[in-house]
Amino acid sequence: MAASAEVQRIVIENCAIATVDAGDTEHASGHVVVADNRIESLGAGRAPEGLENVVRRIDATGHLVTPGLVNTHHHFYQWITRGLATDHNLFNWLVALYPTWARIDERMVSAAAQGSLAMMARGGVTTAMDHHYVFPQGSGDLSGAIIRAARAMGVRFTLARGSMDRSEKDGGLPPDFAVETLEGALAATEATVDEHHDPSFGAMTQVAVAPCSPFSVSTELMRQGAELARRKGVRLHTHGSETVEEEQFCKELFGMGPTEYFESTGWLGEDVWMAHCVHMNDSDIAAFARTKTGVAHCPSSNARLAAGIARVPDMLAAGVPVGLGVDGTASNESGELHTELRNALLINRLGAHREAALNARQALRLGTYGGAQVLGRAAEIGSLEPGKLADLVLWKLDTLAHASIADPVTALVFGAAAPVTLSLVGGEPVVENGRLLHVDEDAIARATREEAQRLARIAAGA
């Protein structure tokens, strides 16, 4: 941190605070002091007197401050195919949409990334991620377009550089021209890591190695992808155990279930996180707990595609790191993570544990500290503690939507989606009074509509 005379401070006072630290410390009325890009102090009551270089002082009466939300699974490109195949299960949905997705290009991906990021940032996401795995031949610099969109938005970002090498001719789902070769996928992934991954504390851009799924990539791409990630010191991400059909596929093709297959290819470990993990038995959960393999829980998408209810309470009880994911907006059209707090709680209460499945504070932890764990950034973000990065959200809870709910965390999770008065990423405002500061929302809306229409025309004429 800079010398004391140079530090610029933001003081937030008179707000409820949910720190989501190890003790779930909360303050009914407290303060947070931000110094440059970090949290300097926080606690009950007013901020200390005599603070120097206070550039902004906020009276946050009627608000709750939480850590910024952390999204752990998404597919930005799907923003321009929202509202299609709305009554399909996962495999039929993929079959219906892959011919369209195979026609995306850099301009489309750029617009879709802006739309996806804008909806998340407006709803309190300060750390986003994108699992992008569709790279049609001649489509341009798709990874670069996504990263540039995240930088323009001002959010912290992980690009999970995906890949597929199992096309229709090999028994996969995507068209032949929409997949890469084994060698090409590995080389392009390594180049993306080399160009964009920042391992330093407070990094704005990181990259993970992320072959798409067991049924769209070869075993060799899984195995060599894991070796590449560990050689480069980056994390690993893929889809796992999403549907009953996937489990049957793995048993027929590999002679084992998904978790056993992942372990055989080097894909269990504390540097790995999987999306969905809906169909996990006790031994699967035990293997994830033993290896500290993380899970991105996507409740709305799992419901939209009728995939099932993930055993999140059992995972948490076993010690599995679990975060929340929006998933692609072709299977979660709202594209917002703060609604996943509520949906995670409600959907898990339909499972075996019923009303004891999750409570409001557990749901908030999934969307904050749990996500930070899954992305390997729990030492930097995910809770409000001195020394951590100043990624935080000020939620307005004194309007009609929440005014009669006494407990602010209950109001945030059980109630309607709360407006964001202020969102900081590294101490820098990204959202003010519900509006994005660094981009033109109306221009993004126009661009995404135009690119969706252009993609539909191209796909129809293909």
Key features of this structure:
4-stranded parallel beta sheet, 36% helix, 462 residues, 9-stranded mixed beta sheet, alpha/beta, single chain, 17 strands, 14 helices
Give a quick precis of the structure.
The chain is α/β, with parallel strands linked by helices. It is 36% helix and 21% strand.
Q: Name the overall outline.
A: globular
Note poorly predicted spans: none
**How many strands?**
17
**Span from first to last CA?**
55 Å
Structural class: alpha/beta
Helical segment count: 14
Q: Report strand %.
A: 15-25%
* Mean pLDDT reading: 96
| Major sheet | 9 strands, mixed
Q: What's the Cα radius of gyration?
A: 21 Å
Described by its quaternary structure, the protein is single chain
Question: What does this molecule look like?
Answer:
α2 (106-122) crosses α14. Strands 1, 2, 3, 4, 5, 14, 15, 16 and 17 form a nine-stranded mixed β-sheet that branches. The protein has a four-stranded parallel β-sheet with strand order 6-7-8-9. It is globular, with a radius of gyration of 21 Å. The N and C termini lie far apart (55 Å). With 462 residues, the protein is of the alpha/beta class. The mean pLDDT is 96. The longest helix is centred in the last third of the chain and has 21 residues, at 441-461. It has 14 helices and 17 strands.
